[in-house]
Queue: 3 jobs
Job 1
Amino acid sequence: MEKMGKRFQGKVAIVTASTMGIGYGIAERLGLEGASVVISSRKQKNVDEAAEKLRARGIEVLGVVCHVSNEQHRKQLIDQTIQKYGRIDVVVSNAAANPSVDAILETKESALDKLWEINVKAAILILKDAAPHMQKGSSVVLISSIAGYQPQGSMAMYGVTKTALLGLTKVALASEMAPNTRVNCVAPGFVPTHFASYITSNKAIRGAIEERTLLNRLGTTEDMAAATAFLASDDASYITGETLVVAGGTPSRL
C-alpha cells in the first residue's frame, strides 16, 4: 500500500454500494490513489461508519444514502457530488441483489423485478444522471460476476442479470459514451464477503470453488479493487468495451 501511485489525484469517483465488501475495497483503493470518493449504501449508519474508516486512512470522502432503485436517491447522489466537487471522473456501478435462490422458472415475479431493477436498470439510470457531468478522459466500470458467464444453480437468474452487464458494457454503453468516456467491466470470481457468505461460509462449497480456480484460492476485495482501479485509470486509456475476469483462472470463456 505504501508504494501505491496517485493515478486519481484531483479526480472524483462515485462507487455505489460501497460501505462494505467489494464496493468498500474499490472506494478505499481509489481514495488511497488520490481520488475524492463518494460512497453510498441504503443505511445512514453504514454510510457514516464507512466514511469514518476511510477518513482515518487520509481519504477525502463524501457519504450519501442511496438505494439505487430510488429515483430521488440517485438524483441526490449525483447532485451532492456536483455540489461538493463540481465534477465526476469515475463511476463504479457495484450495487447488486440476489433475492432468490430458486430455479429461474420457479422465481417469483417480484424477485425477477428486483433482480432486473437493482442489477441492470439502476446501473443504466445512475449513468444517465451522471453522464452530463462526465468530461473527456472519464471512465465507467460496471461490476459483473463470473456467474455472468455460466449462470447456474441457486445463482442462475442473478447470473443472467450479470450477463446483461457484459452486453451493456461491450455493445451499448462503450459506443454510446465514446469517445470522451470509457466503459469497462470487471467480472469477479467468488470473494468471501457478506454478500456471498451463504456460499463461501460453507466449507464444502468453498473447497469446491477453490478447486475450480487455477490459483486454488478465493478472491479478495483487494484483488477486485486493483483490477477496477486499473480500468478506471489512465493506464487503461486505450481500453473500452472490455470485461476483465478476475477469478483466479476459473473457467469463463475461450
Job 2
Amino acid sequence: WHYAPTMNGGERARTIDEMPMEWCMGNGVCIHFQDKPDGYKVTAADLEQYFRRIDYQLRPLDIVLLHTGAQKNYGRTEYGITGCGVGREATLWLLRQGVKVVGTDAWSWDVPLPLVAKEFAKTKDPSVIWEGHLAGMEMEYYQMEKMTNLDLLPVTGFQVICFPIKIRGGSAGWVRPIAVL
C-alpha cells in the first residue's frame, strides 16, 4: 500500500498489518555498495555481477540489505543526498529471485530524491521518480529504510528478524530489525 493501491499487476495492495509474517525472518544477504557514488542507480547487471563475484545464489525469502554508506551522514542535511539507490529494473530482478523484503541504510530504497528531481528537471521523464518503490505495483515486496550498522554485517551467514509494527490499514510501519550472527 506504501507504493500504490495495487500490486502484482492489479491486485489490491496489502496494508502493513496484512504483510505475511513468514517474510520477516530469514537468511540475510548484505550488498556492500558503499563504493558506488552518491546518486548511482543500481542496475540488474550490477546485482548479477555482485552475486557472481561472491558466489551466492539468492534463495526465495532471503532478506537483502543494501549498505550504501549513507548512515555516516544520518542526522545531517547531506543524508538525503547520500548513497546509491535501486532502480525499477534491479528491484524487479531481486523480486524475481524470490526476495520479498529489502532494506537500505539510505534515506530511501531509490536514488536520493533531490538527485532524482534534478534528473526529472532535465529529462521530464516521470518514470525516474520513485522507480524502485513503484516496482511494488508490479511485484509485491516490502522495504526498510534508514537502517544502521549494515557496515558491520558480513555478506552472508546471518539471519534477519524484522517484524513491522502492525498498524491497522497502514501504508507502512516502523520496525526494529536485528541481525543474528
Job 3
Amino acid sequence: MTDHDVTLRVNGKEFTGWMRVNISAGIDRIARSFDVEITRQWPRSGNLAELDLPVVEGDLVEVLIGTDKVMTGYVDATPLRYDASQISASVHGRSKTEDLIDCSAPTQPGQFTNRSLAQIVTTLAQPFGVNVVSNTPESSTLTSFQIDYGETVEEALNRLLGLEQVLAFDDAEGALVLDTVGTKKAVTALVLGENIMNAGSQRDYSDRFSEITVTGQRAGSDDDYGATTNSKITATVNDAAVKRFRPLTIKQCGNATLATCKARAQYEKAHREGQSLETTYTVQGWRQGNGQLWQPNQRVVVWDPVMGFNNTELVVAEVTWQLDDKSGFTTQMRIGPEAAYMPEPKLAKRHRRKKTSDDDGGDF
C-alpha cells in the first residue's frame, strides 16, 4: 500500500484499485463526501458477476488514504454504466453528518432555555447517532433557542452558530466538530512557480459597498421606555477599496445596541471582502512536505503575486483529493481570508418575566 492508495472499508471488506477519486472536506459544510469509480474492459471474463461490487446503499463505510482515515459515513449511491467496450462501477457517499443536512430537526424538546451552544447541538445530533466534539471553550453564555417546525438540523445549526461565532463541520470519524476558523497550520506554503499547478479566482466585487450602515432599535421596558429606546441606533463602516458611491443599509433584527450594530457592520465589510478574494488552488499530490494530508481549516502561507498574495496567511476552507487519468493525484483547495468563513453574528434572544411585588423583575 502506498500513501496515495484509497481504500473503502464496507461490511468487513476492503476495496481498492479505483481509477477515479474525488473526496472533499470543508469548514463551510457539515458533511464530507466521496465519489470513487473503477472501470474495467468488457467483457474481460465470461462471469459478469465478477464486475459487481458487494456494496449496498446505506452501508456504513470508512474511507482511507494510505493509513489515514479521512471519512466515516454511509453509501448513498452505487451507479453502474457501460458501453460496447467497458463497464464502470462507482460508489458515492457522505459523512455520518449527512442526516443532519437531510432530516428534520427533532421537535422534542423544541424549546431550549439556559443551555450552552454545545449542549443544544449535542441534543439535536444525538437521535442520528452523531457525536459532537467541541474544540471551543465552554461558553458561559446561556442560550434560549426554539426549533422552527419542519426545519432541518443544519438549518437550526446555521441559526445557532452565529450566536458565538463558531463553525460546525465534520471530522474523519463522522463526528460534528464545533470550532473556530483556522485552528491548525499547514507545514507547506503555496508558492507560484513551485507547487502551484493552477489557480482561479472570480474576484467579484459586485457584493462590496463603499459604506455599510447597520440600523436597529432597542425595545423599552417598564423602567426604560420612550424616545431613547425607540429611536434608531446606527453604525457605519467604509470599504476604501470601493471607489465609487455604493451604500448598503442593513436592518438589525432583535434588540440592537450601538455595539451590536457596529459589530454587524464590521462583519459585513470584512466578510464581503474575504469572499471577493477567495481563490482555488491545485497542487500535485495529496500530501504536504512532511507527509501529512492537506486538510481543511489549516492556515497556509501563500506567495502568489498574480493573485496579489505576498506571503499572506490564508485559511483552507475546502480540500478535495482527486485522482483521474489526466492529472493523476492532485489536491484542489479553496482558500481565502479568515473573515470569509466567519458565521454571521446574531443576537441571542432574551426572555423576560413579568415583574411582581415579590421580585425585582430580573432576566432569567
